[in-house]
Amino acid sequence: MQREIVTTADGSKTIHLPELNEHYHSKHGAVNEAKHVFIETGLHHVLGKHTYDPLKILEIGFGTGLNAFITFLEAEKINQMIDYVGIEAYPVHYDEAILMKYPETLFAEQKEIVFDTMHKVKWEQKEKVSSTFTLTKRKQLFAEINDNDCFNLIYFDAFGARVQPELWTVDIFKKMYTALRSNGVLVTYSAKGSVRRAMQEVGFVVERLPGPPGKREMLRATKK
Question: Which of 23, 40, 102, 126 gets the most CB atoms within 10 Å of its CB?
């Protein structure tokens, strides 16, 4: 499938799939969306409630590595240990990933080697990319996920329900619920009513929160 690199409204880049008319990140700002949805509403939220050593994060849709890299930068500021698992069925090639220029965009050129490492590490094995951050990349369809009581936080960053509705179903959110530990949190940019109802059906307590630029709302779900 053809992939184009485009610049979003905040100056950061993302990948556009013309065939699906879908972007890997918000066209209103890739970095702004990642920071708002996954860092401010996810990472900072869970770290404000408990102490973790390490904090275990599952990302649904590793993609360009933007969410993982921003999480690394945030965690390094506060010396927070992170055990990060990124699942991706259709990996972005290294040559495409480096064209995103995320270290430069985030004023973290000195950490470019970490971003490079995130894309070069072998799939299916845990790698230590820094003293505080371990990464496991799994090449896997989301329907194949069978983790049980493993994670404190899930970044649910799948393609939108318009193009892949099968990723936003009760069956998938059952897998997410099972993968989380008690009081674990899932955050996503989506605010569709059908998504919220699917989350609630499997047992999540769901909040509608202000969304990132270009979106009125987003969802945060907690496993009570």
Answer: 102
In sequence order, which residues have a C-beta less than 8 Å from that of residue 121 and are 6 or more positions away? 127, 129, 135, 137
What is the value of pTM for the model shown?
Answer: 0.96
Query: Residue 142: CB partners within 8 Å, gap ≥ 6?
Result: 60, 87, 89, 158, 167, 172, 175
Whether the Cβ atoms of residue 34 and residue 70 lie closer than 8 Å to each other: yes
C-alpha distances in angstroms, 188 versus 23, 118, 157, 165, 180? 15, 22, 6, 15, 15
Q: Locate tokens 């998938």: which residue?
A: 172
State the number of CA atoms in the 13 A half-sphere of 224 facing the CB. 9
The backbone torsions φ and ψ at residue 33, rounded to the nearest 5 degrees and listed phi first, read -65, -50
CA angle in degrees (0–180, nearest 5) for 90-93-99? 130
Q: Which residues face 216 on adjacent strands?
A: none
Give 54-86 pLDDT, tens digit per residue. Answer: 999 999 999 999 999 999 999 999 999 999 999
